[in-house]
TrEMBL record:
Residues 1-260 form the CN hydrolase domain. This is Acyltransferase. CDD domains: nitrilase_5. PANTHER family: DEAMINATED GLUTATHIONE AMIDASE, NITRILASE-RELATED. GO terms for molecular function: acyltransferase activity. Belongs to the carbon-nitrogen hydrolase superfamily. NIT1/NIT2 family. Gene3D superfamilies: Carbon-nitrogen hydrolase. InterPro entries: C-N_Hydrolase, C-N_Hydrolase_sf, UPF0012_CS. PROSITE patterns: CN_HYDROLASE, UPF0012. Keywords: Acyltransferase, Transferase.
Length: 284
């Protein structure tokens, strides 16, 4: 399975419509990949809070249309990063979009953990309320599947099961445990991570891979927007915690070949997940 991570520079001097067109062209060029991953909020910028409501769009808005067409042109699975979704009742969400190789919408995921504490995203956007997996049917692979929310696996079928998370979610291992229980074999994590905490970004990506014995594909933004320098350094980590590829700070494309059988092999050779102890009483 070949994956391409497109680390997009979000520049304040580039209009959103122009960046959307440019990124669609980059996706179309990835016709040798099986899976393409974009960063979080690459249209507007993860820290451009003042523009969230102005740039919000529905799930069938201009970004979704452009990305669906690009996925179909390249014949790839496309995780198109996230948008500011204008949901029911004018509620705003940070929503990820996944498209099938024919360009049709496959899954959406509304970010559960919103960053900012008492300001920014945490106060402007509503919280998602379900963990989400996406079954990626890639030629030559087979594995367990799961439904759109966490729960028991439904049985073997063609495809790899990807767990969806976004940026700040990376700090909360409970979410990734639920995704593992739902059958996740790799995690797709778009982000707009700040350069000031780049060391955390790399550490957390490796930690989620090791503890879950799964691939982590973490794709961030480059450049500076809303006065916040972005970390870049998108990374691909294998189920043993080895870094297979890592970008620098600028706009860059990472292309990595993944072995879909490595997850099952790792979990069989070092079966730590079966030793989990659930329901440990809280300390008194």
């Amino acid at each position: 399975m070949r994956a391409a991570l497109l680390q997009i520079a979000v520049r304040p001097d580039e209009p959103v419509a122009e960046r959307r067109t440019r990124v669609a062209g980059l996706v179309r060029a990835q016709h040798t990949a099986d899976l393409v991953l974009l960063p979080e909020l690459w249209t507007v910028g993860a820290f451009a809070f003042d523009t969230f409501r102005e740039q919000a769009e529905p799930l069938d808005g201009p970004t979704a249309r452009a990305m669906g067409e690009a996925a179909a042109a390249a014949r790839v699975w496309l995780h198109a990063g996230s948008i500011i979704e204008r949901g029911p009742g004018d509620t705003l969400y940070n929503t990820s979009l996944v498209f099938a190789p024919d360009g049709t919408p496959h899954r959406t995921y509304r970010k559960i953990h919103r960053f900012g504490f008492d300001r920014g995203e945490a106060t402007l956007l509503a919280r998602g309320d379900e963990t989400v997996t996406a079954v990626l049917d890639v030629p030559g692979t087979a594995g367990p599947t799961a439904g759109p929310t966490a729960g028991p696996t439904a049985g073997p079928t063609a495809g790899l099961t990807a767990g969806l998370a976004t940026c700040y979610d990376l700090r909360f291992p409970e979410q990734f445990r639920l995704l593992v229980d739902a059958g996740a074999e790799l995690f797709l994590v778009p982000a707009g991570w700040p350069a000031a905490r780049r060391a955390h970004w790399s550490l957390l990506a490796r930690a989620r891979a090791v503890e879950s014995q799964a691939y982590v594909l973490a794709c961030g933004t480059a450049g500076t927007h809303a006065g916040v320098e972005q970390a870049g350094h998108s990374v691909v980590v294998d189920p043993w915690g080895e870094v297979l590829a890592e970008a620098g700070p600028g706009e860059e494309t990472l292309v990595v070949d993944l072995d879909p059988t490595l997850v099952a092999k790792t979990r069989a050779e070092f079966p730590a997940l079966r030793d989990r102890v659930l329901g440990v009483p809280a300390p008194r």
